[in-house]
Amino acid sequence: MTTKNKPLLFLLLIPALMIGVVLMVAIFRREDSTAPLTAERFRQEWDTLQGNRYTIRAQIDRQIGSSAEVGRILAVRMLDSTGRLPVLVPADKQQNFEAGQRYEFHVVVRGDILLVENADKF
Predict the structure, then answer these.
(1) What is the model's pLDDT at position 88?
(2) CA separation (Å) from 28 to 7, 53, 121?
(3) What is the dihedral of CA 87, 73, 113, 115, to 10 degrees?
(4) Helix, strand, or coil here: 58?
(5) pLDDT, tens digit, for every residue of 24-60?
(6) With 34 labelled, which of 11, 20, 42, 109 sits at a CA distance of 20 to 30 A?
(7) d(C-alpha 75, C-alpha 85), whole Å
């Protein structure tokens, strides 16, 4: 190979490598919420779901506990599965929650509880 062809080879090789890296990232990228979160699945697999984000539709059953520093723990009934789940609404969320209200919760699994990032009433 002559020295004149080497720069051309590098110019073609660099974009090809970049395309390969982008494809690998797209293929191996971790997707949250690949399967719906049900109360049963949460109870059985909570340790493997750590850090995953989900959107759940649920009805407020009752408030389990409250702390001015931490927030409120609510028991919610899933609308698409049986059973109740605990959700932690951080203290900085200033929404009022009452039994019977329905919400779409955007949650992340933290330990054995679902941490509410956002809640939209419907």
Answers:
(1) 95
(2) 32, 18, 35
(3) 60
(4) strand
(5) 766 555 445 446 788 888 889 888 889 999 999 999 9
(6) 20
(7) 6
Question: Please, what's the b/e burial string for 6-29 (b: 16 or more CB within 10 A of its CB; e: otherwise)?
Answer: eeeeeeeeeeeeeeeeeeeeeeee
Determine whether 81 is exposed, middle or buried from the number of CB atoms within 10 Å of its CB (0-12, 13-18, 19+): middle
Residues 41, 17: Cα–Cα separation, whole Å = 40
Euclidean distance between CA atoms 101 and 97, whole angstroms: 7
Termini Cα distance of the chain: 68
User: For tokens 């919610």, what's the residue?
Assistant: 76
Closest by CA position to 109, among listed 27, 28, 29, 41: 41
